Each structure stands twice: as structure tokens, then as C-alpha cells.
Amino acid sequence: MARPDGRPAEVVIISPVLKGGIAAAVIGALFVLAGFWVGFSLARTDGAAQALDATAAGPTATPTTAARHPSFDPLQRSVAQILAAAGAVGGVTLMELDGSGPQTWSLNGDQQFVAASTYKLPLLMEEAQNVTGGRWRGTDTLCFQDSDEEDGYFNDYHDGTCMSRSQLEHRVGLNSDNTAAHILVRYAGGGTALNRYAQAHGAKQSTFYDPNMTTTNDLARLWQDEYRGSAGGKAAQQYLYPILTKTAYEKGIPAGVPAGTTVVHKIGILDDEVNDAALVQRGPVGAYILTIATQDGPGGDAGWKVLADISRAVWQFEQTRTA
Q1: pLDDT digits over 229-247, tens only?
Q2: How would you label 11-45 residue by residue, b for 16+ Cβ within 10 Å and e otherwise?
Q3: Between β-strands 162-164 and 104-107, what pairing exists: parallel, antiparallel or unpaired?
Q4: Inter-residue contact 188 to 212 (CB < 8 Å)
Q5: Where do the H-state alpha helices sit in the chain?
Q6: How do residues 52-95 score in pLDDT, each as one tens digit?
Q7: Could you tell me which residues come within 8 angstroms of residue 297 by beta carbon, excluding any fewer than 6 positions away?
Q8: Domain 73-318's class?
Q9: What is the pTM (predicted TM-score) of this model?
């Protein structure tokens, strides 16, 4: 072929081998580009799928650790020291009712102690349950017999003395009067009936009234049953609690908690025996039960101080718990 100027045109000759190589290179490049495109598309698809899965699963839950209950060891040392300093033998039971992971602790909790007037706790529980349940009435008239008489808070009983059931209950609860309690026990069926009731509500190791022995664990279980509503429910609690609050005997467990704290309790005193069985309704992290029985100690005001010191140690321990 001639160029416009008339000179022969340059002819570039490509050999068949070179033609084949160029073709292969072009085809290879196309495959490489196709591979990149497929990989890019798959990567986008996988990423989108993973993001969708994560969205569907929601936020990752953060593991939570339950609040750890403090060790009872410091409390046990404090209580043991208080008893030793007073030269007393004692049983103590703490039963936590509220807060995180409530637990029960005791020192000599199954040891037998003279119950003294703590037998009046199951007696009054039964009274409250039967009155609010309609079996008995607070207006029932109950009369004194000579066999009922025992020295106590009141001495106005004589032949022909009759009182309402409610009046006797208040004398037993607020003043721990012995003769009033004997009248109630007699009308309720005697000591056998009282123990049958107490056993049904958790006092498995006690023999109340005669020979009148108990343990702090049994007294705590009675309060636990009452607190749970198993002894007549809320109606019985509303009937019972006022006659066991702000009693004539507030030097024990109530003296060891801050002023204004409601303590529903029943005490028992006989010579050097000083006992108290209490429901503390609003402790540092909620309600708890504290029952204490002591013997061979100083008795009197010094004996009450032992109980108050133990109560204070328990309150301070409860302050270390997490609500």
C-alpha cells in the first residue's frame, strides 16, 4: 500500500505466535478483572450478611455478678466476745428476710435453754390467728381460777375475776403477765395444745410451758412462719404486732437498734435467764429475725445490756450487706 506521498507504506508483520500470546494475555486480563469483581461482590455480600446477623441478635449482654453476701465470721467473733465478757452462755439466731441473698446464721442455735416467757410468742400467735379467723372473739369473757395464779406484772386476780380475751392478750403481750397467760393457755386446751400449735409452726425442738424449754432456732422459725403469713396472714399480723411493740421490756433487742426502728418481740426473764425473740421490721436492708437466749450471765440490767450489745452487733453486720 502507498502512503499519500507516494512512498511505500510500512508494514508491521505480527507472527502467529505473537498473535496467540497477545490473545491469551487479553483473555487472562479479562479473567483477572472478573475475579476481582466477583471477590469484591462476595465481600460486600458477606459483610452485609454479618451486619444483618449482628443487628438481629441485638446488643451483647453484659454478664452480671450477684452481690456477694459478707462472711458471718466477724459477727460470730463479736457475739462470742460479748457473751464471754459477760460470763454468759448463749444461743443466737439471725434469719435475714430481705435484701440480696438472705441467709441464716446461728451460734448454739439448737442448744436448749429455759424458755421463760418466750412460750407466750406461740400462745399469742395462736390467739391472733383464731380471733381474726373467727374461731374466737376478742370480746370472749375468760375467768380466773386459783390454778392460774403466778407472780407477775399484775396482782389483781381473785375468785370471780373475769376479763375479755383481748384484755388478757394485751396483758400478756405488753406486760408479759404470767397469770393472764395461764388463763389463755387453759382456755386454749392446755400445754399439749400449745405445743401442738408451736410444732406446726416450726418449733420442732421445744417443749413449751412444761418443762418449758426452747432453742433460738425454734423461736426464729416461729417468727419466720408468722412473717410469711402462715399463722393467719395479714389480718393476724395486724392483730398481733401492736401488742408486741413498745412493751414494758425494751432494754434487750430494741435497745440495740437505732431509735425509731420498729421491733416486734417477746421477751423471757427468769433469774439469770434473759431471752428475747424479735422481728426487726426495717433493718439496713430490710426485715430480719433475731432471737437470743442467755443463761449463767449477770441477769438484771446487765443481762439486758448483753442482749442489746448483741443486737447492736447484728445491726452493724447487716449494714455491710448489699440491698
Answers
A1: 999 999 999 999 999 999 9
A2: eeeeeeeeeeeeeeeeeeeeeeeeeeeeeeeeeee
A3: unpaired
A4: no
A5: 16-57, 73-86, 120-132, 165-175, 178-187, 190-200, 216-227, 233-240, 300-318
A6: 333 333 333 333 344 689 999 999 999 999 999 999 999 999 99
A7: 83, 86, 87, 88, 89, 90, 272, 274, 303, 306
A8: alpha beta
A9: 0.80
